[in-house]
Write a structure and sequence with these properties.
- The chain has two domains: about 130 residues, Immunoglobulin-like, CATH 2.60.40; about 325 residues, Metallo-dependent phosphatases (Purple Acid Phosphatase, chain A, domain 2, 4-Layer Sandwich).
- The termini are far apart.
- Helix 3 runs parallel beside helix 4.
- The protein is built from ten helices and 35 strands.
- The protein is globular and about 100 Å long.
- The chain is about 15% helix and about 30% strand.
- The strands form eight sheets. Strands 24, 25, 26, 27, 28, 29, 31 and 32 form an eight-stranded mixed sheet that branches. A seven-stranded mixed sheet has the order 23-22-21-33-34-35-30, with no helix packed on it.
- Strand 15 and strand 16 form a beta hairpin.
- It is of the alpha+beta class.
- Its main location: secreted.
- InterPro entries: Calcineurin-like_PHP (IPR004843), Fn3_PAP (IPR040974), Metallo-depent_PP-like (IPR029052), MPP_PAP (IPR041792), PAPs_C (IPR025733), PAPs_N (IPR015914), Purple_acid_Pase-like_N (IPR008963).
- One of its GO terms (molecular function) is acid phosphatase activity.
- It comes from Oryza sativa subsp. japonica.
- It catalyses: a phosphate monoester + H2O = an alcohol + phosphate.
């Protein structure tokens, strides 16, 4: 029996909401680009569409691929544009060009015994791809030219021409090899605050093992003699990961990740730094020259500007990988932040960082994309489902959204001031702010280790000196009228508010931020489902409730809302953007939601509050008083 139109529409909306909420499922979206990609899955990692394990080899002498230039980064650049000329005797819409690194990607590189007839002939996915008919005359002439942007990823590259579409690829030609002048060079520094306010960490990636070269950071203030601080070095192998594709077709050697701790910084002073590696003969391989501003001390009254967003992912500036259907707003968010970087002091990317989903090469791609930001201001991350979730791996949710990464990539590629890297919760102080960053992929309920951390983080801040108290998590533990959460009736993760709202209220949390739902929404100051104030743009007086904001529009495919806005929902928008907080002093805070497309403000409010307002009695929370003397 045919399904009624209303039923079809409802099924489509449910599937769309499930994909848009950040889960592992996807929805088919049609495109006119070619018959071979007449569909792509919204919310699906584009590299997962390639059936590389089913690939066959049929090298055709009449087909060819040529890449130029052969040597990249001769002046120390870590990105380069490459021209790829190709030809096929029987051009079709299903033809595509894949970029492979290392350049040797045949069966000899597969894990396990070699020479087996039963194994795949190609066992590693490309790091990116483009459809051959992106070159306009290819369908007519069988010849085409494409441009690819490559980044230094520690290995050489080759380009392969396939027929048969993405799902059943057949290799017919392979290009010459190309490489960066120094594939091992130190690249893509990532700043993060350390465990103390006057400590900055610098993390970067290179091809140098500690046995080959000694990693360090040379740093200091202007006009002062520089200091050299040694860095620690870590890496991981396939066996460190939890499942496919991370351990199979998505695997790529991650190189070596180095972290140095720059300590005893002077508050708000500008520091200059370079990453480097000293070779055994004393020669130094240098990275680029950067600078950063040291954090203010806790309670310091100065202008402090914070950016918060989630679910950004990455995209390709050369148009590869059909990211227009996957993370279409990612580059806009990145570029808008770069343009305003002189007016940003610290960034929080609150989960669903790269959406690599087990394709390890994509972490390098992401660190390169955000390097202009992360090299200059602290870039603090939170754990999301696409970083952590994998069955029987210790995550609270047993989904497969991490693609087998199970937190290893996020924990290794970025530093966070956690006490235990496997438990991705931490606190960090920035001047007049205290940030309590929860890990929504681990149990937060009362009686758990994380609940005790949240309570301690909220309770131990001195609100006289740090009046602005902010709670952060990836999944919505507060309020969202996103279609997925609304359909469940809880408008949040089940039991989340029941577990945490009394803590937020008792400790007068000003703001709570979440990702996971790919849109923007802001509530009134709310407690137990009821607004504590009718105001929309100017708040003052006692903290009668917490303002919750969903900022999951960093770049990934957008999520829809429920048809009707709940009473606590003040502003909601299905667009890409981020929030910027500006603390002027102990009593005045500006909140702005800015769209990624233009950086303009589309929602804002101000808070004006005295310390006595933090102490005032509010619903279900009244500080104890000293009885009068008798």
């Amino acid at each position: 029996m045919a399904m009624p139109l209303g039923g079809i529409l409802l099924l489509f909306l449910v599937l769309l909401a499930a994909a848009a909420a950040g889960g592992g499922g996807g929805v088919w979206a049609f495109s006119s680009s070619s018959s071979s990609s007449s569909y792509s899955r919204i919310g699906e990692q584009p590299l997962s569409l390639i059936g590389i394990h089913r690939a066959t080899v049929g090298i055709d002498a009449a087909a060819s691929v040529q890449a130029s230039p052969r040597l990249l980064g001769v002046k120390g650049e870590d990105t380069a544009w490459v021209t790829v000329d190709f030809a096929a005797p029987h051009a079709s819409d299903g033809d595509w060009i894949g970029v492979f690194s290392p350049s040797n990607f045949n069966a000899s590189t597969c894990p396990g015994p070699s020479g087996s007839d039963s194994g795949p002939v190609i066992c590693s996915a490309p790091i990116k791809y483009q459809l051959a008919n992106y070159s306009s005359d290819y369908g007519k002439t069988g010849k085409g030219t494409l441009k690819f942007q490559l980044i230094n990823q520690r290995q050489d590259f080759s380009f392969a021409l396939f027929t048969g579409g993405l799902s059943n690829p057949k290799l017919i030609a392979v290009s010459n090899k190309i490489a960066f002048a120094n594939p091992k060079a130190p690249v893509y520094p990532r700043l993060a605050q350390g465990k103390s306010w006057n400590e900055m960490t610098v993390t970067w990636t290179s091809g140098y093992d500690i046995k080959e070269a000694y990693p360090f950071v040379e740093w200091g203030m202007k006009w002062s003699p520089p200091t050299r601080t040694a860095a620690g070095t870590v890496t991981f192998d396939r066996e460190s990961l939890c499942g496919e594709p991370a351990r199979t077709v998505g695997w790529r050697d991650p190189g070596f990740i180095h972290t140095a701790f720059l300590t005893d910084l002077w508050p708000n002073k500008e520091y200059y730094y370079k990453i480097g590696h000293m070779l055994p003969d004393g020669k130094i391989v240098w990275g680029k020259f950067y600078s950063f501003k040291a954090p203010p001390f806790p309670g310091q009254k100065s202008l402090q500007r914070v950016v918060i967003f989630g679910d950004m992912g990455k995209a390709e500036r050369d148009g590869s990988n059909e990211y227009s259907n996957y993370q279409p707003g990612s580059l806009n968010t990145t570029d808008t932040l770069i343009k305003d970087l002189d007016n940003i002091d610290i960034v929080f990317h609150i989960g669903d960082i790269t959406y690599a989903n087990g394709y390890i090469s994509q972490w390098d791609q992401f660190t390169q994309q955000v390097e202009p930001i992360t090299a200059r201001v602290p870039y603090m991350i939170a754990s999301g489902n696409h970083e952590r979730d994998w069955p029987n791996s210790g995550s609270f949710f047993n989904g497969t959204d991490s693609g087998g990464e199970c937190g290893v990539l996020a924990e290794t590629m970025y530093y966070t001031p956690t006490e235990n890297r496997a438990n991705y919760w931490y606190k960090t102080d920035y001047g007049m702010f205290r940030f309590c960053v929860a890990d929504s992929e681990h149990d937060w309920r009362e009686g758990t280790e994380q609940y005790a951390f949240i309570e301690s983080c909220l309770a131990t801040v001195d609100r006289k000196k740090q009046p602005w108290l902010v709670f952060i998590a990836h999944r919505v533990l507060g309020y969202s009228s996103g279609f997925f959460y609304g359909a469940g009736g809880a408008f949040a993760e089940p039991t989340a508010r029941q577990s945490l709202q009394r803590l937020w209220q008792r400790h007068r949390v000003d703001l709570a931020f979440y990702g996971h739902v790919h849109n923007y929404e802001r509530t009134c100051p709310v407690y137990d489902g009821r607004c504590a104030s009718p105001e929309r743009s100017r708040y003052s007086g006692a903290v009668g409730g917490t303002i919750h904001a969903v900022v999951g529009g960093g770049g990934s495919h957008l999520s829809n809302f429920t048809a009707e806005a709940p009473p606590w929902s003040v502003y909601r928008e299905m667009d890409y953007g981020f929030v910027k907080l500006t603390a002027f002093n102990y009593t005045s805070l500006l909140y702005e939601y800015r769209r990624s497309s233009d950086g303009e403000v589309h929602d804002s409010f101000t808070v004006h509050r005295e310390y006595r307002d933090v102490l005032a009695c509010v619903a279900d929370s009244c500080p104890p008083t000293i009885p009068p003397a008798t």
